[in-house]
Amino acid sequence: MDDDDHDHDIDIRRRALEEAFGESSDGDDDEFESSEVAEEKEGDVRPLTWEMVDGVKGLWLCRSFLCPSQQSSLLSAIRGEGWFDDGCHNQAMRFGDLPGWAAQLSQLVREAVWFSDVSPASGKELSPTVEHGEDCWPLPLDLLWREPLFDQLIANVYNPGEGICAHVDLMRFADGIAIISLESECVMHFTRPKQGESNNEVQGEVQGEEGPLIRVPVLLNPGSLVLMSGEARYLWKHEINRKQGFQFWNGEAIHQQRRTSVTLRKLCK
Ligand SMILES: O=C(O)CCC(=O)C(=O)O
Ligand SMILES: [Fe+2]
């Protein structure tokens, strides 16, 4: 991509971000936005860098997906739904037409993929352009351009110590799943049985109940976006174990606080 193309792309992305987070003309309370975000728009557009997670094909992480003010706006929008007001519920699901803020979030996911930079850390310093293969996109393009991109959301609130057991998301959901993390950071583990291909690319091996497992930890910082497709979505289980003694990153225990996440998926036809 030459400099002109790059500037043009940044321009498009800036406009897209303005549309998603800009001053609301219809006064819809449903939307999430903030004046800080509006100020940020005047300045540089933050580069959205994507990392391919080593060893887990189809797993991508964008650590800088939402800046702090966007994270606060999103949290306020979620709280504004009143789903968790009674203190008894820690999960809410919506199908079909998503609230305005979730539709905007979906749009931001699409833009984050379309205007992505693949991380040099992954050893593949590529900007995805048409001449590169599908593997260079954080989400395969047929999924990226489906309509709607997502029609189901789950908001989860986890208190310290609470997580989610190892699972593959239900087959009623199509390929291409997004997870946005807010508040406390945490480590999500991806696991799959050791037998099979691509064993030489793995970061860790442990003994699971069903035999040896390949285990790949991923740090989900607040504001990060995870995308799972293909093998990451269908062959690997994901899990967050926040019980005492399980949340470590680089040898250090993670200080746990409340964590909120939004998972966006599409129902199969
Ligand atoms: O809360 C998360 O980060 C993951 C949620 C999840 O995996 C699910 O709801 O299927
Ligand atoms: Fe899941």
Automatic annotation (TrEMBL):
Residue spans of biased composition, Acidic residues class: 25-37
Gene3D superfamilies with a match to the protein in the record: Alpha-ketoglutarate-dependent dioxygenase AlkB-like
Gene Ontology CC terms: mitochondrial matrix
Region span, Disordered: 18-43
One GO BP annotation of this record: fatty acid metabolic process
Highest rank taxon of the organism: Eukaryota
A Pfam cross-reference name: 2OG-FeII_Oxy_2
Domain Fe2OG dioxygenase residues, every copy: 149-268
Family: Belongs to the alkB family.
Protein name: Fe2OG dioxygenase domain-containing protein
